[in-house]
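Posting for a labmate who doesn't have an account.
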Amino acid sequence: MATATVRPRKRGRPSGPRVAPYGFLAPAGILFALIFALPIGYAVYLSLRKVEIKGLGLGKNARHEVWAGLSNYTGVLSDHELFAGALRILGYGAIVVPTMLGLALLFALMLDSKHTRAGGFSRLAIFLPYAVPGVVAALLWGFLYLPTVSPFTYLLDKLGLPEPDLFSSGLLFGSLANIAVWGGTGFNMIVIYTSLRAISPDIYEAARIDGASELQIALRIKIPTVAPALILTFFFSVIATFQVFSEPTTLKPLTNAISTTWSPLMKVYQDAFVRGDIYSAAATSVVIAIVTLVLSFGFLKAANSRTDQGAS
């Protein structure tokens, strides 16, 4: 009598391990979509729209939103105020970026020196201005710039020295750049200093045995080794330069040398909330974002290709 063979049932693979990574990534993906992707998409949508007014624009249906195509972008690219603000930002960045990164590198090298004393306090003191909000820093320096309340002006007057007008057109760029340098040097210093601390002490010891001085070690070992950190800080500084807004906006009530469209982002604010043209403001924002993205990636590509050539 034949006996029936019982075949074991195939067990399906558990789906938990496959789904778990997506479950962990879901909160970050949702936040990215709501906070980053959705606003960008809405700005692009608004940049392609405009308001059409019928008659005197007084009726209920006299104003309605219509498709504008690329007309808003055409207006932005022919806006002389926007180009003038972009040129001012280039001059501002030419002062801020080299000065800030140069001081950050200098402070990082000094803190990394074996002769440094009170390194923890020095790091905190240099980094502390970065913790001050930009508006507060601008107000602080703005009152220090005002001749009527500035203690520096009082001291210069008592010493019989000339009192410079730091809000004049000739010194305005330096005054605004000083606020950015004061606030941003500490952050860049921490990035560079962290990269310096990752270098093995054996390399320094070998260089000293070969007779290298501390200056030669800094110039030939430390600075080339932290080049990726310098590129990163330069990248961040360029982006921050294109986004300058709070400093000139905060100082504007204190001087007539700063116009309402002094920087491109101030032009966006003026169009959106003063003139009420959010469609043109959205197009300007998209153009600024594209220019920043292209310049940043172009610089990164050039820096990476130069690094690869140096390595080969």
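Reply:
Got it, the structure tokens are right above this. The domain at 72-311 is CATH 1.10.3720.10 (MetI-like fold).
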